[in-house]
Write a structure and sequence with these properties.
Shape: elongated
Order of helices and strands: HHHHH
Oligomer: single chain
Structural class: mainly alpha
Distance between the termini: 17 Å
Radius of gyration: 16 Å
């Protein structure tokens, strides 16, 4: 029963972390829309929408590789912060590789806001999960 509960919990965490990534994407788009234009280039979320499935796909593998599905099994907050940093950093590098391969010139402000929000939300969620696991 414990194994099944861990599997369901890991699946919930994985899906919720991808939903956090999607939320960070749209929040970054909303924030970027309200910032001044970059060098005569108006921002359009529509032209950046293809990045949403690409970024979620880029984040799935690092999140799984570094054990995000193993809920509550890490001993310290620093270890969680390091895992989040590695996952978001490697996912961002994969996303940049996709941008280069597709020869798409995105809003750099949007990308910076997106990565910062994604890192922050994932870290807060992981720290909250770690805290809840310790107090059970």
């Amino acid at each position: 029963m414990t194994s099944r509960r861990r599997t369901v919990s890991g699946l919930f965490h994985g899906i919720f972390e991808l939903a956090l990534g999607a939320g960070a994407f749209f929040a970054a788009g909303w924030i970027r829309l309200h910032l001044p234009a970059e060098a005569e280039r108006p921002f359009s979320l529509d032209s950046h929408l293809w990045l949403l499935p690409a970024s979620l796909a880029a984040w799935i593998l690092p999140l799984w590789l570094w054990g995000f599905h193993r809920t509550g099994r890490v001993g310290s907050a620093w270890a969680e912060a390091w895992k989040v940093s590695r996952a978001v950093g490697s996912g961002f590098l994969v996303l940049v590789a996709m941008l280069v391969a597709r020869k798409f010139d995105p809003s750099r402000g949007f990308l910076a806001i997106f990565v910062a929000l994604d890192w922050s939300l994932l870290l807060l969620f992981r720290l909250a999960s770690l805290s809840m696991a310790r107090h059970q």
